[in-house]
Amino acid sequence: MRTSDFLPLLGIISGIFALFVDAKNQPKWRGVAIAGIVLAALLSVGASLYDDHLDDLHRQLADLRTLVLQQNGVRAPETVAANPADLHRSVEAAQLKQQVMAKLPSASSRTLEIQYFPRFTSDVNPDVVIAALHQLGASVTQKAGTNPAVQSLPTNCVWAGDDVALDEARSVALALTAAGVKVRDIRQLAQGGGAHSRLIEIGSSARVEAMPVLSPTDIINRGITKRTDPSF
What we know:
Blueprint: H1 7-19, H2 27-71, H3 76-81, H4 84-102, E1 113-116, H5 120-123, H6 126-134, E2 139-142, E3 157-160, H7 166-178, E4 185-188, E5 199-203, H8 216-221
Parallel strand pairs: 1-2, 1-5, 3-4
Antiparallel strand pairs: 3-5
Helix pairs in contact: 1-2, 4-7
C-alpha cells in the first residue's frame, strides 16, 4: 500500500473532530483540529511525491535489471520474469567467467572447437552468448541434433574433450549460466580423444536432468566428470 493512502484518513478524522468542537468555548481544540487538517493535506502532497519517486526508482531498477540480463545473453521473455536471485546468479557467473578466462594460458597450438545443438538457440540469446564463446578464441558452430529423446530438454550440460583445459570448460559453463541456462554437469566427451580432444559440446542430457543445478561457485569448485565416474 502506498504511503499517501493513509494520510487522507488523518484529514477526515481531524475534520470530523473540528465539527464537534465548540469554536467559542473550545477555541484551542478547534485550532488543533484545523492544524491537523492542514498538516494532513501537506503530508498527503509530500507522500504522493515520495510514492511517485519510489515508482520511478522501481521502474529504473527494472530497466537496469533487464539491460544487465540481456547483455549477459538472457532471452528477452526471461528478463521480464527474472527475480533478484536470477540477476545475482547471472552477474556472478559473468564476473567469474572473466576471472577464469584471465587465468587461461596463451592460445593453444590447436584451436578450441565449440559445438552446440539447435535447442541451445531457443534457451539463450545466441548472438550474445556465441560472441562470449568467441572470446575463448574458439570456433563456434551448430551441430545437427540426432537424438529425439533429448530434443525437448533444455540445454543442461557441457562436454569436454580430453585436451580441453578445465578452465576452458568452466568458462563455457559460466557463460551459459550468465545467460540463464541451468547447467547441471560438466562431463568428458564419450569419444573425447583424437580429432575431438579440443572439442566442447553444449547440449542436453536426460542423465543429468535430475541432478542439481550448478551455481557459479559450484562450477568454479568442481572438476570434469570423467567417463570412469559411476554417475557418467
